[in-house]
Amino acid sequence: MKDFRILLEEQAASSAQPHVIRLTGYLDHDNVGQFDRSAERVLASGNYRLIVEISELDYLASSGIGALVSLLLHLRRRGGNMVLVRPVPRVLQVLDVLGFAELLPIVGTVERANSILRGESR
What we know:
alpha/beta
């Protein structure tokens, strides 16, 4: 099992670029608080567009799912949105079963996520 890590690439509220959070390892009850603290930084910034890059996220527990949904709702209440990028097959299967594709875009590249968040397409 890989250690859980978060890399947050923050952008200014006035920036045309969204924030990017890169998640590695397992997002579960042991580290969801760490994710929540990063989410709070995003919300406090005033830039409510977020890319969550999860190509190295090996496991997504129910607590991690709840944290993602909570963050999405907070972003949308503020006029923002979130896009998930490159989930591994095991994580994608969980997201598919839960209907995440109906809630938010799940795409294969950060570039595609950027175009969605700029309003170019869903």
